[in-house]
Design brief:
The complex is a heterodimer of chains A (51) and B (261).
Chain A: H1 4-44
Chain B: H1 3-6, H2 15-23, H3 26-58, H4 72-99, H5 102-134, H6 142-163, H7 167-181, H8 184-194, E1 204-205, E2 209-210, H9 214-246, H10 251-260
Chain lengths: 51, 261
């Protein structure tokens, strides 16, 4: 039995899991930063602007 | 009045305590960790590449396991990390509960997904090593089962944290679960001694030396160090994101986000 497919599969799974684990917080950060910018814009609008 | 006796001496401050105190301040932590993260990723990339080169191309095949021994350069460091991260999470959880340090709560909770990822890598790589070596992907062996329980504990900590709306309450509940779950760590470690298991005993010991050849030991150790830097970089990144999320109405967060633009 060749061991190569098992070795490649193990390293591939590890690469995918660890890459996803590293990228997930960056994706989350992007969405939070967007929320914060929107929140800042809303709060920066003067209260009398709709009067 | 004697000037010598009346002059107040300035109390000396311990630099380590000062550092720990500073780390408890979210804006300071956010800035400081931002500087460390790129260096941690760089060191991880260099060490992991070196370990992979040695493990996949330079180290010899094992006389019993054959080429499948190359999975060990991934499996063993991942298994060490799965246990180390849980230990750190439990210690940080304990500190967070006793001294109510918010940064510790954030760091403990941020550790859980990274630990779960390493546990998944451990179980998957071990299973792929088991098929050509033992003739099976899985057996309900004490070591394998206790490692699977570790994955469930990590998932439990993540799930419990996400199920409570108030972040600090959620963190305290999850920290408590992390501390209780630490009882599984000695079970994983000593399972190969306490029970008659299919899983082999340790080949490397801090005190007893190593029973494997240096050509196989070095890639393992280098990968073990590399994974520590992966954990460091990932942990700090996750902690920064949690801070942004929890403090999004505070001025320092808005300033930090605006600085990035």
């Amino acid at each position: 039995m060749s061991h190569i497919p098992f070795i490649l599969a193990a390293y591939f799974i590890a690469a995918v899991v660890l890459f996803w684990c590293a990228m997930a917080p960056l994706v989350r950060k992007k969405s939070i930063a967007r929320d914060i910018r929107r929140l800042t814009q809303i709060e920066d609008i003067p209260r009398d602007s709709d009067a | 009045m004697n000037m010598k006796t009346s002059r107040k001496t300035k109390p000396r401050k311990n630099p380590l305590l000062m550092f720990i105190h500073k780390m408890g301040s979210p804006p300071w932590f956010y800035q400081f960790s931002g500087k460390l993260i790129p260096w941690f990723w760089l060191i991880f990339a260099v060490l992991a590449t070196w370990a992979l080169y040695l493990g996949l191309f330079k180290a010899p095949a094992d006389y019993l396991q054959g080429e499948s021994v190359r999975i060990m350069y991934l499996h063993v460091p991942a298994a060490w990390m799965s246990m180390l991260i849980y230990s750190l999470m439990a210690v940080m959880g304990f500190i967070a509960l006793v001294w109510r340090i918010r940064m510790m709560e954030i760091l403990a909770i941020a550790s859980a997904p990274i630990g779960a990822a390493f546990t998944i890598v451990t179980l998957a790589s071990g299973s792929l090593w088991g098929r050509p070596t033992w003739g099976t992907y899985w057996v309900w062996d004490a070591r394998l089962t206790s490692e699977l329980v570790l994955l469930f504990l990590y998932l439990g900590v993540i799930g419990l944290y996400k199920s409570i709306d108030e972040p600090r309450k959620a963190a305290r509940a999850a920290c408590l679960l992390a501390i209780v779950g630490a009882v599984n760590l000695p079970i994983i470690h000593f399972s190969v001694k306490w029970w008659n298991t299919l899983h082999q005993g340790s080949s490397i010991s801090l005190l007893g030396g190593s029973s494997i050849d240096a050509s196989m030991l070095w890639p393992l150790l280098i990968m073990a160090v590399a994974t520590k830097f992966y954990y460091g970089a990932n942990l700090l990144t996750r902690a920064r994101v949690s801070l942004l999320e929890q403090d999004k109405r505070k001025s320092w967060v808005r300033e930090a986000i605006m600085e990035q633009d």
